[in-house]
Amino acid sequence: MSRLILSGIVCCLVLRTAYAIPACAQDDEDCRESHMHPDLLSERDRLTSQSRIAGEETTEYWLDQGKQFVKEKLHTPANQNIAKNIIMFLGDGMGITTHSAARTLLGGEEKSLYFETFPHTGLSRTFNVDKIVPDSASTATAYLCGVKAIGGTIGVSGHVDRTDCVGSANVTYHVNSIAKWAVDAGKSAGVVTTTRITHASPAGVYAHVAERDWENDSEVKGDCGTDTVVQDIAYQLIHGEVGSKLSVILGGGKREFIDSKLYAAGKRSDGRNLIEEYKQQSSRNAYVETLDELNSLNVTEVDRLLGLFQDNHLLYHLETNEQSNQPTLAELTRKSIEFLSRNDKGYFIFIEGGRIDHGHHDTYARLALDETLEFAKAIQLARELTNETDTLIVVTADHSHAMTYSGYADRGNDIFGSTTYTGKDGQPFMTLSYANGPSYETFFDVQQHARHDPTTLITGAIYDSFPSTIPLDSETHGGDDVAVFASGPWAHLFSGVYNQNTIPHMMAYASCVGSGLKACSTAN
Ligand SMILES: *[C@@H]1O[C@H](CO)[C@@H](O)[C@H](O)[C@H]1NC(C)=O
Ligand SMILES: *[C@@H]1O[C@H](CO)[C@@H](O)[C@H](O)[C@H]1NC(C)=O
Ligand SMILES: *[C@@H]1O[C@H](CO)[C@@H](O)[C@H](O)[C@H]1NC(C)=O
Ligand SMILES: *[C@@H]1O[C@H](CO)[C@@H](O)[C@H](O)[C@H]1NC(C)=O
Ligand SMILES: [Zn+2]
């Protein structure tokens, strides 16, 4: 007995030394301070009432907020209607740190992006068949087609390796997106993005390729030879089984559709102009290239709408002005919903804020967070234009990024500013930084083997780089789960922690499309 007690004491003494757990009486402030890291101490002392929100110092404020939240929950009955319409919003690379940080741009940490107020949320696990941290191609296959796949592949199962030309063309391995399930059920379907329309995420709606870079025929020929039967992504959009049935197609990437001999920016080498071919398919196929053209379009006079607003990706929202004549994501969303709502059977639409990801890859945190706000505006508009009783809106991301949101800046501090104290090298560090990326050399003096003061390098420009710890040409994606936000019929299904590929199965259940389980079937 005494030996047991003794070994117990020894164990705890060892632990205590190893982790330096402070032993202070509950109300002994002096003792606490003696254990506190000096930097944290000065941060605490710096905190003034000005950096806080009036009311938050009271007990009542938080008790009331808690009560209101419980009340809201009690008044959110499960919506078990059939979803006539499904709107899927995809924030490319919009990890949880991204939308959490973007809140502060609305005026403070306590604010919420519109979609963060949706009644039901869950977490999506994003790994793919061959990688822990996925890319946008395999994840599109997961959240649109319901199947996890190999990185870099789109609309094909895990049998097909990246750049496998033979596997790519074999229909046995093709997997279809929920856009096809919706069209087969008599609904309309559409795809909208701020990237090239042939980019990985939007391509998940309509394409089957073993390589996401096969956006034009030149790329395919490079990998598969000139006599290949593999069709490039732009070709599949205009002539493919799903692409040719999409009612709304809006984004960038005009260059992938036209031969370089016919159009200077063109990337094709097969002599084709796929935009002309689309127009020739029907006199009621409309084509637009500017915001003005989009606005003046009379939707009752056309059956299908193709809009390509840039040769490459759309400009970042912060890069545009009136001369750009480029629609915002919200403007694209408005027109699409107006257009698709004409079908009494409903619609499925995929709407991507695609450049959040690009901002992060370049460590341009300002651009990434601003694109996140634009994304949120489009979602708010979509919810206002539709009815929660019959339209399910699902908001998620394909994967996260290696951006961290670290401590401990004061309340009210600029999210793009530095934290309150310095590193052990005496230099300040930023609230936002990246685990890796191209900005390493900007912030690290390799010769001196020392960090520069980052606050002198971040000037407020839209192309401000934020520090990265490991030198890489492009900052990487992150493997942490991404959030899913749902509003409308069967939104409650989206709670929990689940694999990304289950998302379309839940959307299909809610709207009674596809060959899986359905809310309207008694055979569940
Ligand atoms: C497609 O794949 C299936 C299954 O492996 C195989 O039986 C078939 O021969 C393939 N078709 C072609 C055209 O390669
Ligand atoms: C399309 O083709 C051209 C060659 O004409 C190539 O340089 C370009 O990078 C291609 N791929 C994409 C994804 O645009
Ligand atoms: C749109 O076209 C329809 C049919 O041609 C016409 O009746 C309607 O007035 C037009 N609307 C606008 C705003 O021009
Ligand atoms: C939504 O639809 C329901 C049921 O049809 C209807 O009662 C309600 O007024 C609609 N709400 C709006 C904002 O249109
Ligand atoms: Zn990316």
TrEMBL record:
Instruction: Write the Enzyme Commission number(s) for this entry.
Output: 3.1.3.1
Q: Which GO terms describe its molecular function?
A: alkaline phosphatase activity; metal ion binding
Q: What's the short name of a Pfam family annotated to this entry?
A: Alk_phosphatase
Give the gene symbol. LOC105226411
Leader sequence range is: 1-20
Q: Does the keyword Nucleotide-binding apply?
A: no
Name of the protein: Alkaline phosphatase
Ordered alphabetically, the record's keywords are: Hydrolase, Magnesium, Metal-binding, Signal, Zinc
Q: What is the lineage of its organism?
A: Eukaryota, Metazoa, Ecdysozoa, Arthropoda, Hexapoda
Which terms in the GO cellular component ontology are assigned?
Answer: plasma membrane; side of membrane
